[in-house]
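Exercise: predict the fold of this chain.
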Amino acid sequence: MHLPESLVSPINALREFGGGVPCAKLLDSVFKPMMQSEPTQLLETLINPVELNPLGFSSNRSGGHMARSMMFTEIQILCNSLAPAAALETYYQAVVEENQLGKPTFSSRKLSYEHLRSLYGLDPSAPLFRVFRLLGAEEPEALPTLALVCCYCRDLQLRASFPAIETLSPGDPWDKVRMRDWLSNVFQYSPIMLEALAQRVNGSWTTAGHLSGKVRKIRRVPDPHPASTAFALFAGWLTGLRGRYLLDSVYPRLVLNDDRLVSDHLNEAGGRDWVRYRSAGGILEIDFSPLLEPHELEALHVPH
């Protein structure tokens, strides 16, 4: 693939390629240095195109983290109690009608359902959530990082906070104030909203294993899991990323920081029929077609 000279400038590149669903995503590795140093330019590059919504992504500018963290305890309860193929209506019944989450009032049940719907989608007709449930059932210990990837694809505020996390090395300190200051350069929210948002996104990065500690946090590395690596790459693949562009994108960095593990995890995922993976003789193939239905492959223009 020949890349034009305008790729030297991320802003020009976004203007040139922004009209296509996969193209802005193909430039993730180009945007990374800017994302780490100029947070004020992040917002428009992080908004998902509406074309990704049927796949389980969200293009909303206000995500679930405006009200809650990633609600891991709640989604874990539902993953344990409901079948992976459970319909959207089943989640509503479990949360609102049966009160499986143990909420004190009917209104709190409905709010919990709405927040979970915003964070995860809860609809198995969308491949992102369906594969999240499938891989979570296959490797339950990977659920925290699986949940993180799902929320990342659906929550603008969580996406905007990750470049701040990436500025840290393992062992570096972190706290709510520093996250608040980072977010204040991205979003024009009130100080009270920024404070609460910083606490919630820090909580989600802690749940997923990128941070440890309560008030004073420390950067750490998430526990690696083949299912998490496969799901992160699957999410990037859905956006149109292929080959080396996919491996160099933000998606695998959500779940691990050791590039050497990616190939091992893909080989294991291939043995479990989650992906077709080949890397030999200069040829790199990463194809998640086995996880999609025929009509989804047609929508993505993937041969089957």
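Check your answer against the key: The chain has one domain: 1-304.
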